[in-house]
Amino acid sequence: MNHTQPTTYHRLAARDRPAGLPVMKQRWSRLLFLHWRVDPDLLRPLLPAGLHLDLHEGEAWLGVVPFLMERVRPVLMPAVPGLSWFLELNVRIYCHDDSGQPGVWFLSLDCNQPVAVELARNLFLLPYEHARMRYGGDLNATRYHCLRDGELDEAVYEYGPAGEIREAHPGTLEFFLLERYILFSRGRNDRLYSGKVHHPPYRWGPAKCDQWSTLPVKWDGLPEPHGPPESMLWVDHVDVHIFPLRRLPPTL
After folding, report:
1. Where do the TM regions start and end (predicted)?
2. 3 state DSSP class of 123
């Protein structure tokens, strides 16, 4: 079936706030975006029918993103100590639907808050995994640990900012990797859904990363990328509105 390739218009339009009311508010902070170029033929089979691999200048990218989740709560509700602050680490690839909407397909999302794991699995149909996680240090040198339940070895990251902070420009690799406002997920009977997040454009800079791990990729059943990350980006924080899932039209 033919499908529309994402254009600059599609990528900029994804930033627009959707109609209706958000269901959640949260802050993402101390974000580390690590990316490797990967053979597109390795990633295409991971996408369900109706989604297509999104490429930057003909190349596919795999991301590992550890960060802090803060002030997570339903709209109109206060944040709750013990529930609203936790850690998350996701493994992600980039895709688009038949209409050209660009977004993210998550291979996994490790999290150390059991209630958040179960809610995200059921409400957003995302592949969350229970994990033991912790972090320390300050904004200039965060040390971050993740051990998924059932695994033996721990993924460790030591990172911080390393340069000028700016916004990404359309057409750049940084824009392609960072400016993602749509997630795709799969429900019963292989039905596809999209969910929108809305936040100001990321203010990013290069990251220094003294220690990094590809273990989460291995945990997801993929070969670990060789060599250091080819892109390492840092974002201090961003405040986010989360909107409900919407079912995508069936693929013909």
Report:
1. none
2. helix
Confidence bin at 250 (pLDDT 50/70/90): confident
Q: Give residue-wise pLDDT tens across range 96-122.
A: 999 999 999 999 999 999 999 999 999
Contacts of 107 (CB under 8 A, 6+ apart): 46, 90, 91, 92, 93, 127, 217, 220, 222
Question: Using CA atoms, how far apart are residues 209 and 157, in angstroms rounded to an integer?
Answer: 7
215 membership: H or E segment, kind and range? helix 215-219
What pairing do the DSSP bridges indicate for beta strands 141-148 and 86-97?
A: unpaired
Q: Which of 25, 102, 30 lies closest to 66, judged by CA?
A: 30
Strands (E), 39-126: 51-53, 60-74, 86-97, 102-111
Question: Would you say domain 8-247 falls under CATH 3.30.2110.10?
Answer: no
Domain boundaries, the chain: 8-247
In angstroms, the Cα distances linking 191 to 108, 124, 125 are 19, 13, 11
At 87, is the secondary structure helix, strand, or coil? Answer: strand
Mention every residue, 6+ apart, whose C-beta is less than 8 A from residue 76.
none
Query: Is 252 a residue whose pLDDT tops 60?
Result: no
User: Within a 10 A sphere around the Cβ of 231, how many other Cβ atoms?
Assistant: 18
Q: Degrees (nearest 5) of the Cα angle 128, 66, 136?
A: 120
What's the rounded Cα separation, in Å, for the pair 113 and 86? Answer: 6
Q: 123: how many CB neighbours lie within 10 A of its CB?
A: 14
Three-state SS at 120: helix
